[in-house]
Amino acid sequence: MKFLLGVDGGGTKTIVSIANEFGEITGLSKTDSVDILNVPPEEVKNKIKKAIDESLSQAKIKIEDISFSCFGMSTFGDVPGTERKIEMMVEEILPKSMVVNDVRVALEGALPKSPGMILLAGTGSMAMAKDKEERIFRVDGWGEYVGDLGSGYFIGRMILQRSFEEYDGRREESSLLKMVKDFANVSDLREILTRCKGFNVRTYIASFSKIACLAATNGIYSASDVISIAVEELKRSVKALLNKLDFEPVPLAYAGGLFNCEYFKNEFMSVMKKVQGIEMVEPEFPPYIGSLLMAAKNILSQSEFLSFYNGLHKNDKELLTI
């Protein structure tokens, strides 16, 4: 029996999964961020190993039983020099493996059998596409300092900025200020600043995107305006990526934590439906399944892969909506 292991390692959460050659998911575990630029490398390694051990235990197999694995890792390919560091870490954990960017596995999960594009909007943001020759193109995903436009971090930072503007009297005070303080569990807004240093700051700031969602849903203009600005930035990424492709219409799927917010998702869908040259589609599988599909493609024959693909659809629906 062949077993595949996949890692969907994002900027906020990470999913480790195991499936047999028939597409049956036998192990599934979660941990938090494995972003090597924001979390100490040794901590990243330990988190992944612990999650793998948990999945192996569920699958009732040993690590030696894994035929091949695919690691979709946040920041991989984003910054020159980090690729080899991540590859070396992965090789120490599982030698029979491949490493790609986490958005690449999201793209494979969303559109496993056709060319197209995915817009990932979570802690960070990136648009990625594959054409009919499976060439890969991308826009953004360049991190919180110079990119990730329209991301959870982008929204969270703007919400904090507007809260401090209300605190200073630069902006008319609204209930947003109290919502931010309550969410951060502080009595003085300035206490938030002490959390904005050191590791995991990116995730912390991105968490305030939840307040943007709640406030916008409750009709607070300063929050709904932030979401509108973010969606416009994501639209610009999609249009820039469209210019790199030579076929239309381009199927556009989406993934990432921001889409858990109905307000954000509705705004996004409304704006994207007006963009010429794209066709909005639902992701066929969640991102973590993409890592299993990419692992399977590397070792299974064409007929075996088809059996694997069909088997994935037979898993419990709850497993396919994580």
TrEMBL record:
<feature type="domain" description="ATPase BadF/BadG/BcrA/BcrD type">
    <location>
        <begin position="5"/>
        <end position="295"/>
    </location>
</feature>
<protein>
    <recommendedName>
        <fullName>ATPase BadF/BadG/BcrA/BcrD type domain-containing protein</fullName>
    </recommendedName>
</protein>
<dbReference type="InterPro" id="IPR052519">
    <property type="entry name" value="Euk-type_GlcNAc_Kinase"/>
</dbReference>
<dbReference type="Pfam" id="PF01869">
    <property type="entry name" value="BcrAD_BadFG"/>
</dbReference>
<dbReference type="InterPro" id="IPR043129">
    <property type="entry name" value="ATPase_NBD"/>
</dbReference>
<dbReference type="InterPro" id="IPR002731">
    <property type="entry name" value="ATPase_BadF"/>
</dbReference>
